[in-house]
């Protein structure tokens, strides 16, 4: 369909299970990351949106089609890059691209031409005619993405696209996703448990924990809402107390005290730090050490859940019971 | 061309690509039947009404068809683990096409294997009746499609548990072979074994293939063979398509 459409979905899930009363809308052309620890319900959500599993309750629609009653239409409209390898290990990469194109209704000639384009575009010339099992992890991932793009999908879903890749390949992949998003204008929805990735890639980050959305905003706004961290070190506990008392008068800030430092969390802390230092010096408690840190999404997660994302290691991914409800207005 | 037909052909062609590219894999897949042929055939007693090979080879052919098709679910299990099955489930390919295309593909390696066996035994005391062999190949095609579909259904049901696939496949394989009279005739067996044999659809397939390989066309035996293969095919496709529809 070529209507100038805006895609939203609203989903809403109500039980205490993998995904609970999720209610959201994603517009055409957005690049959205679901961020959360393992077991947060990210993949379950994606599996429902890509028609792999039906919602226990509630509805969802993608590209204007209901994921239950319009399965086939959803499948035609979306590209999907799962956690595993989409290309069969015994197949040749190019053959898989052609077969995927044919599955999406391309003619034989178009499927060949599209495969050639993608092979060139995703830098797969050297490996496209080799058996998939002989490809490196990064090459396979590029091939998987190429397969997801064969039919120029309106919506591209990527489930933990960079898991298992080395840092260099991860960065390459992020650049690739960003470039494809810009070039095609497709909506891109990905899941990740890497903060850096959500931060670097997505215009919008939906933080998910225990099957619920706990924050939904741009990475920049999520972080600026939290403010910078100004950590001031002192040589005595008395100085710490005195400085803390002084700093508690800073408007719209939060002060945490440890045995030899004071943490001041405040918006635009980096711009304020000179003033803060001068004020403390005037008060007779000049800090011995100063650190200013921009907030990370990990700080955001910690702030929202009381747990660090890096420490959160849940291995269960209960996909059994899910309730969703969503609606799309096209 | 309807979507179902084009989807099925797409799936079948994809499954056949590794076969065309590495035809030797078809030979490796039939090592077991070839070993049986090489080591078992010399032990066969001389028969009054002709060569023992004439009796034994059709059984080995049926055994090859059964083994090849029953192992095929392992390929699907590998794709379930790697993620390419999931990718296909999210594509617009219909669920029945994903199963039926795979099952139809089983005919090709089976025919190649039959050709190899016939080529290997013809220089020995085996009389080739080409017409009969071709009709037998049709019956075996139907049988292979059914067994292949059952194997895929088993793979889908064993999701993530390889041991379950292999345990069930191995547990069923040899009883099916032995009660169908592939290695030894079931004639004169105890009553219970005769009943089991009579309930095994493969028995009729083997009987028909034997008659056809001998260049004879007894209508009742051939019809029963076709019926036996058709029962396996219908059951396999029904169970297989159901399993594929439930796959996620």
TrEMBL record, chain B:
<feature type="transmembrane region" description="Helical">
    <location>
        <begin position="55"/>
        <end position="77"/>
    </location>
</feature>
<dbReference type="InterPro" id="IPR013525">
    <property type="entry name" value="ABC2_TM"/>
</dbReference>
<dbReference type="InterPro" id="IPR047817">
    <property type="entry name" value="ABC2_TM_bact-type"/>
</dbReference>
<dbReference type="Pfam" id="PF01061">
    <property type="entry name" value="ABC2_membrane"/>
</dbReference>
<feature type="domain" description="ABC transmembrane type-2">
    <location>
        <begin position="24"/>
        <end position="247"/>
    </location>
</feature>
<keyword id="KW-1003">Cell membrane</keyword>
<keyword id="KW-0472">Membrane</keyword>
<keyword id="KW-0046">Antibiotic resistance</keyword>
<feature type="transmembrane region" description="Helical">
    <location>
        <begin position="221"/>
        <end position="241"/>
    </location>
</feature>
<dbReference type="InterPro" id="IPR000412">
    <property type="entry name" value="ABC_2_transport"/>
</dbReference>
<feature type="transmembrane region" description="Helical">
    <location>
        <begin position="163"/>
        <end position="184"/>
    </location>
</feature>
<comment type="similarity">
    <text>Belongs to the ABC-2 integral membrane protein family.</text>
</comment>
<feature type="transmembrane region" description="Helical">
    <location>
        <begin position="132"/>
        <end position="156"/>
    </location>
</feature>
<keyword id="KW-1133">Transmembrane helix</keyword>
<keyword id="KW-0812">Transmembrane</keyword>
<protein>
    <recommendedName>
        <fullName>Transport permease protein</fullName>
    </recommendedName>
</protein>
<feature type="transmembrane region" description="Helical">
    <location>
        <begin position="107"/>
        <end position="126"/>
    </location>
</feature>
<feature type="transmembrane region" description="Helical">
    <location>
        <begin position="24"/>
        <end position="43"/>
    </location>
</feature>
<dbReference type="InterPro" id="IPR051784">
    <property type="entry name" value="Nod_factor_ABC_transporter"/>
</dbReference>
<keyword id="KW-0813">Transport</keyword>
């Amino acid at each position: 369909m070529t209507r100038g459409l805006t895609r939203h979905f609203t989903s809403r899930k109500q039980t205490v299970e993998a995904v609970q009363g999720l209610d959201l809308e994603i517009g055409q052309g957005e690049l959205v990351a679901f961020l959360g620890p393992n077991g947060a319900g990210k993949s379950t959500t994606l599996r429902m949106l890509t028609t792999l599993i039906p919602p226990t309750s509630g509805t969802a629609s993608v590209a204007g089609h209901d994921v239950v009653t319009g399965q086939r239409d959803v499948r035609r409209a979306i590209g999907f890059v799962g956690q595993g390898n989409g290309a069969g290990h015994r197949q040749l990469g190019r053959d898989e691209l052609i077969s995927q194109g044919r599955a999406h209704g391309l003619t034989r000639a178009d499927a060949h031409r599209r495969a050639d384009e993608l092979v060139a575009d995703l830098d797969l010339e050297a490996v496209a005619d080799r058996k998939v099992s002989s490809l490196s992890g990064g090459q396979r991932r590029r091939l998987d993405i190429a397969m997801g793009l064969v039919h120029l999908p309106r919506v591209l879903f990527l489930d933990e696209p960079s898991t298992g890749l080395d840092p260099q390949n991860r960065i390459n992949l992020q650049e690739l996703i960003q470039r494809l998003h810009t070039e095609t204008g497709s909506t891109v929805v990905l899941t990740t448990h890497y903060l850096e990735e959500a931060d670097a890639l997505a215009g919008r980050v939906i933080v998910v924990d225990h099957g619920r959305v706990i924050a939904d905003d741009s990475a920049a706004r999520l972080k600026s809402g939290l403010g910078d961290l100004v950590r001031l070190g002192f040589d005595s506990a008395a100085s710490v107390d005195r400085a803390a008392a002084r700093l508690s008068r800073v408007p719209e800030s939060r002060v945490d005290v440890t045995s030899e430092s004071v943490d001041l969390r405040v918006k635009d802390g980096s711009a304020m730090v000179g003033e803060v230092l001068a004020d403390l010096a005037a008060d007779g408690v000049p800090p011995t050490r100063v650190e200013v840190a921009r907030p990370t999404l990990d700080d955001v997660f910690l702030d929202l859940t009381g747990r660090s994302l890096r420490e959160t290691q849940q291995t269960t991914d209960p996909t059994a019971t899910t309730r969703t409800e969503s609606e799309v207005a096209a | 061309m309807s979507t179902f037909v084009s989807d099925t052909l797409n799936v079948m062609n994809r499954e056949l690509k590794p076969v065309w590219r590495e035809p030797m894999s078809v030979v490796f897949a039939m090592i077991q039947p070839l070993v049986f042929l090489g080591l078992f055939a010399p032990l066969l007693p001389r028969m009054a009404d002709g060569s023992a090979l004439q009796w034994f080879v059709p059984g080995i052919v049926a055994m090859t068809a059964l083994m090849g098709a029953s192992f095929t679910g392992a390929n699907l299990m590998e794709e379930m683990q790697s993620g390419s099955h999931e990718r296909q489930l999210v594509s617009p390919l219909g669920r029945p096409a994903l199963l039926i295309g795979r099952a139809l593909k089983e005919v090709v390696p089976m025919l190649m294997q039959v050709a190899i066996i016939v080529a290997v035994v013809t220089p020995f005391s085996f009389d080739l009746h080409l017409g009969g062999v071709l009709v037998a190949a049709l019956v075996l095609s139907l049988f292979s499609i059914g067994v292949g579909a059952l194997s895929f259904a088993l793979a889908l049901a064993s999701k993530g548990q390889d041991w379950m696939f292999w345990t069930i496949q191995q547990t069923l394989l040899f009883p099916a072979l032995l009660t169908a009279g592939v290695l030894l005739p079931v004639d004169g067996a105890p009553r219970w074994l005769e009943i089991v044999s009579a309930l095994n659809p493969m028995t009729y397939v083997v009987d028909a293939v034997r008659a056809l390989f001998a260049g004879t066309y007894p209508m009742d035996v051939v019809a029963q063979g076709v019926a036996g293969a058709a029962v396996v095919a219908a059951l396999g496709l029904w169970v297989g398509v159901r399993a594929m529809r439930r796959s996620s």
